[in-house]
Specification:
Length: 262
């Protein structure tokens, strides 16, 4: 690990000021600390957000569930508010990593990191959520830009995420056994504006599976989802699975998600 300066932010404004000067935000540390240990990251200054109380908590706001950026995966998984309004989101949080990771990792940290195989991005896109920052509101479809790339500016901090409650939703993933990240994960939701299908793990970043959305709009059945042939040209291929294998999994997991919603 390289040497670095440590700062503990007292407020969102305090943190934003430090980030504007080149600091790197630390939430739960589950991704950043590991990268630093391997010397894959060399931040000159670490800005610890953990002391900012306003970034924590879960509440109901009308028909939406609002989750603070520093809320841990374990807190999302066990929240009565989330379980009642969006049980698929609670189940997704419960499937992340292991118990240690779930008790340290945060939803805001996961989204800002935007790992290609992370679970939360699928829920954000699948539910058409809104990411709130210290500067603006960003729609789910505009937030994820590329591998480990988001719409966030250098001094911009996620403060909360607002998830509209769907009519029905389900998340199914095929986990990589060692890391428990999604080799492929598919989130299917019936929302007030139609069917949304978000895929993580298969491509450089989360994306919507429009062919499956179109098929389910015509016939919301597991067979309709499974019958869709996904183009593999833009998907990942590595030692864990070929692009063609991932393409096959997208349709299979989407069909399982629909079946789970029945």
């Amino acid at each position: 690990m390289y040497a670095f300066e440590y700062q503990r932010a007292k407020s969102v404004a305090d943190a934003a000021s430090a980030l504007a000067k080149g600091g790197k935000a630390l939430a739960g540390g589950q991704s950043l600390v590991g990268a630093m240990k391997l010397r894959l990251a060399n931040p000159g200054t670490i800005v610890d957000l953990s002391g900012i109380a306003e970034l924590k908590g879960i509440k109901k706001d009308g028909d939406a569930v609002v989750i603070g950026a520093l809320t841990t995966h374990a807190e999302v998984a066990s929240s009565p508010v989330v379980k009642q309004a969006i049980p698929a989101l609670a189940a997704l949080a419960e499937s992340i990593g292991d118990r240690q990771v779930r008790n340290r990792g945060t939803i805001g940290g996961s989204l800002a990191n935007n790992d290609p195989a992370a679970d939360y991005p699928a829920a954000v896109v699948g539910l058409g959520a809104t990411v709130h920052t210290n500067k603006r509101k960003i729609a789910a479809d505009d937030f994820f830009k590329g591998m480990y790339e988001t719409a966030l500016a250098d001094d911009e901090i996620i403060t909360s995420v607002s998830f509209p409650a769907p009519k029905k939703a389900a998340y199914v993933k095929f986990p990589q056994p060692a890391s428990r990240f999604a080799l492929v994960g598919v989130f299917v939701a019936q929302t007030g504006t139609g069917v949304r299908v978000a895929v993580t793990g298969a491509a450089p970043h989360v994306h919507r599976a429009k062919p499956i959305e179109d098929a389910l709009a015509k016939s919301f059945t597991a067979d309709a989802a499974k019958a869709v042939k996904i183009f593999a040209g833009h998907l990942n291929s590595d030692l864990h699975g070929s692009a063609e294998y991932r393409a096959h999994l997208v349709s299979v997991l989407a069909s399982r998600a629909v079946a789970a919603m029945a």
